[in-house]
Amino acid sequence: MEIFQIASLGIIATTLIILLKNSRPEFTIYISIITGVIIFSIILKHLVYVIDVLRDLTIKANIEITFFTVILKIIGTAYIVEFSSQICRDAGENSIAMKIELAGKIIIMILAMPILLALVDLITQILP
Question: SS3 for 93?
Fold first, then answer.
């Protein structure tokens, strides 16, 4: 199972970071970033499968594809924000991580506007 590969990779990377933290601290952030990219590349094919299944469900449920696209952008933004803010935290930059998270929340809010507007439009059509 791939989870054992991912867990093993994480444990090895963490051990390397702990060993290098005192002697070569400049390498620790590189190990963290490379490990994250490798883990993401391992799970990428599963993510593609999930997106395909969600797309098929959207088509079968006759939901407008625009909403599906917006939801995928929101999910992608959330993952990117989480990944990048955790890298900043690993490097000891909590302030930058918090700013990335704030920017991500604002971008998600902007991305969600078409869904919110469609919902408001639907409510106003239902109410007299």
Answer: coil
Question: In this model, does residue 128 exceed pLDDT 80?
Answer: no
C-alpha span between 24 and 128 (Å, rounded): 69
The answer to whether the Cα torsion of 88, 91, 94, 96 is positive or negative is negative
Q: How confident is the model at residue 51 (pLDDT cuts 50, 70, 90)?
A: confident
Q: How far apart are CA 26 and CA 50, in angstroms?
A: 37
CB contact set of 39 (below 8 Å; sequence gap of 6+): 6, 9, 10
Give the span between the Cα atoms of 28 and 14, in whole angstroms. Answer: 9
CA pair distance 94, 79, nearest whole angstrom: 18
Euclidean distance between CA atoms 54 and 48, whole angstroms: 10
Output the pTM of the full model. 0.73
94-126 helix and 65-90 helix, angle to the nearest 10 degrees: 160
The residues near 40 (Cβ < 8 Å, ≥ 6 apart) are 83
The domain limits of the chain are 64-128
